[in-house]
Amino acid sequence: MENNELQRLVERISIDLFGKPFKHKAIFNSRLKTTGGRYLLGSHHIEINRKYLEQLGKDELIGIIKHELCHYHLHLEGRGYQHRDADFKALLKKVEAPRYCNQLPEQKRKRRASKILLYKCESCNLAYKRKRKMDTSRFVCGKCRGKLVMVKEYFV
Length: 156
What we know:
By secondary structure, the protein is α+β, with helices and mostly antiparallel strands.
């Protein structure tokens, strides 16, 4: 999809769902990294992240366009156009636009395994699970004041 096709799509969605024309530019911006799109307050243009079309499809793109058009039309009318405003939330609901776009598959972080250290008291065998190493020459068992030894280190 090229910029002129995006422009026509935005204009069509604006007329069909909002009943008002979109009179500014809608373009793809490849520099957007963490967001699906943005509405520019100064120029009234809308920029869309092309990766959302490529990786999540046209339905996600249409959702992003609806969301940005909510900002656009409310701002031009002088009403609450920010995410926290009641006018914005009501218009999102009316046109069935998402409040936030989905995360790109490439942005989803894998959960890092965390290291667990297991210490035991030599006297009473009380186990201590720790995330950080401890100096066993300085610390003793809280129950019997016995000597602590590291038993094992494992990942969960």
